[in-house]
Design goal:
5-stranded mixed beta sheet; Arc Repressor Mutant, subunit A; 12 strands; D-Maltodextrin-Binding Protein, domain 2; 296 residues
């Protein structure tokens, strides 16, 4: 059986060799590594003894790689680079205190933002940076640690933690409700309806839940974000289907009212989307645990 210790030189010797090859001398390699010239020379001598071949041609204080040295450097440099990258990555996982989280705009403003003081109190060492994103993307390529997603558990190359479902209710301005004479769900059929861009069928499903069939084609303006939709409804532009948890402030203040008890429970769900290695990131684990507790 071979002695693996002899076949695997020390990292110090390899670092001295690679630095001397780049710097063209033992003294400059020592300055780069924080070692003395004699220490570098000794490490390279041990490496050459282990390999049983010289790696440098000496020219006084200067050295140049010989043929064996050039071949050896070409072989080991990729491995040294991978070791360096793996070391930085592991240190990053253990010590990073900042997080990059992508969130749906309305969810971030109405659900996450009011709760962030609690996260800061619990983990003052964490810095969480948020960006608004509405559609799935590659977490690694976009350099995000996690995201908030609504829909199905279909985000590629990620782990998805279910948070909660959503109940959408009809919401409108109280003056608009009185002016239009809305008393029953069927009264909405010929009134202005406001749509969320990615949920064009929501109104059809709500009318079906309210027991109304044989619907005429439903028309109305589209809004990409729920808060834009809520603002339009509050301004008297029509009736909107809005997640109740997003419009609690408007409901409490009376800016918006919900004329009917029928709620649309969406088939989708809110998820915390995490990069696959999230358990190796202490800060991300803390964010996950805090968010799950907030949901509960």
């Amino acid at each position: 059986m071979s002695d693996s210790r002899r076949e695997l030189p020390s990292m110090t010797a390899l670092a001295c060799f690679a630095s001397a090859a780049r710097e063209g001398g033992f003294s400059r390699a020592g300055e780069h590594l924080g070692l003395t010239q004699s220490a570098v020379s000794r490490q390279i001598a041990l490496l050459e003894e282990s390999l049983q071949t010289p790696l440098f041609t000496r020219h006084g204080r200067r050295v140049t790689l010989n043929e064996a040295g050039r071949a050896y450097l070409e072989d080991i440099e990729p491995a040294l680079r991978r070791i360096r990258q793996a070391t930085i990555k592991t240190m990053d996982r253990g010590s990073r205190r900042d997080l990059a989280i992508a969130t749906l705009p309305s969810f971030g403003m109405r659900w996450l933002a009011p709760r962030l003081p609690g996260l800061t109190t619990r983990h003052p060492e964490l810095t969480v940076n948020f960006a608004a994103r509405s559609f799935p993307f590659n977490l690694r390529e976009e350099r995000f640690d996690a995201a908030i997603h609504f829909g199905a558990a279909d985000w590629a190359d990620a782990e998805m933690v279910p948070l909660f479902t959503e109940q959408a209710v009809v919401a409108c301005a109280p003056d608009w409700l009185r002016t239009e004479g809305i008393r029953a769900p069927a009264d909405l059929l010929d009134k202005p309806l406001l749509f969320q861009t990615s949920r064009r069928q929501a109104w059809n499903r709500w009318f079906a839940a309210a027991g109304i069939e044989g619907l005429p084609p439903l028309k109305g303006p589209n809004f990409e974000q729920f808060l834009m939709l809520a603002q339009a409804a509050a301004a008297g532009s029509g009736a909107a289907l809005l997640p109740r948890f997003l419009i609690e402030p408007e409901l409490e203040s009376g800016v918006l009212v919900t004329p009917f008890e029928t709620a649309l429970v969406d088939e989708g769900r809110y998820y915390l989307v995490l990069r696959p290695d999230w358990r190796e990131h202490a800060g991300l684990v803390k964010f996950h645990d805090w968010l799950v507790e907030e949901v509960r």
